[in-house]
């Protein structure tokens, strides 16, 4: 890394504000019917499988952990101990673009098996969006969307013209969305925080 002079780091605060404004705008555009069917299918599934690549995969793992805390039988696709998927299972793909090859290919296999496929994505018309039983659309910038103006370029109000780079908008939005699904599941099931805590690993 080249030597650079660190300034007052105002960009850190501006970026956080931009992210929170962006998130508020996305919340207003969410389809409540899709949220409802996603939750319905999670509750009806025999077991829940999560998958995603890169940073989206990390979001998938974070959601899987909370579902485990809630008492669901949950697995992360690609782990060595993950069992075979069966038709009565639900597979949830996290992919902003809906086109990441490994995840889109696995989505097709999931449909061939006859399991329920839910995709959390930014793109309804993507490969994953089109084949899913539920396409939960989070309209946010993905790694494939152009960076209109450069993410460090300020607009007239002093904020950024665009979000931080690549898939960050989708990744942050999906993490917060899925944690909010957990909140809804907690109110629906009446689970307590103590219950959740009791399921957390005791060997870390
Ligand atoms: O969410 P998508 O579009 O499937 O992309 C998956 C991953 O690809 C990456 O951009 C790396 O190529 C990750 O940062 C991102 O989370």
From TrEMBL:
Keyword tags: Isomerase
GO MF entry, a single one: carbohydrate derivative binding
Q: State one Pfam family annotation.
A: SIS
Q: Which domain of life is it from?
A: Archaea
List, alphabetically, the PROSITE patterns matched. SIS (PS51464)
Q: Name one GO biological process term.
A: carbohydrate derivative metabolic process
> Which Gene3D superfamilies does this chain map to?
Glucose-6-phosphate isomerase like protein, domain 1 (3.40.50.10490)
Q: Where is the SIS domain?
A: 38-191
Q: Which InterPro entries match?
A: PHI/rmpB, SIS_dom, SIS_dom_sf
The UniProt similarity line reads:
Belongs to the SIS family. PHI subfamily.
Q: What is this protein called?
A: 6-phospho-3-hexuloisomerase
Organism per entry: Methanosarcina vacuolata Z-761
């Amino acid at each position: 890394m080249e030597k650079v002079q660190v300034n007052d780091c105002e960009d850190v605060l501006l970026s956080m504000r931009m992210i929170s404004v962006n998130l508020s705008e996305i919340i207003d555009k969410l389809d409540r019917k899709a949220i409802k069917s996603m939750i319905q299918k999670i509750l009806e599934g025999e077991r829940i499988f999560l998958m995603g690549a890169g940073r989206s995969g990390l979001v998938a793992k974070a959601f899987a952990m909370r579902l485990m805390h809630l008492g669901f039988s949950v697995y992360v696709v690609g782990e060595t101990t993950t069992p075979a998927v069966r038709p009565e299972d639900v597979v949830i793909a996290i992919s902003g673009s809906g086109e990441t090859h490994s995840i889109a290919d696995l989505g097709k296999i999931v449909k061939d098996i006859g399991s329920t496929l839910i995709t959390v994505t930014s793109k309804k018309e993507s490969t994953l969006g089109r084949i899913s039983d539920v396409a939960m659309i989070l309209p946010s910038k993905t790694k494939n969307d152009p960076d209109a103006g450069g993410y460090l370029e300020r607009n007239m109000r002093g904020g950024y013209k665009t979000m931080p780079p690549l898939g960050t908008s989708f990744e942050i939005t999906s993490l917060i969305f899925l944690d909010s699904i957990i909140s809804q599941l907690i109110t629906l099931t009446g689970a307590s925080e103590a219950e959740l805590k009791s399921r957390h690993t005791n060997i870390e």
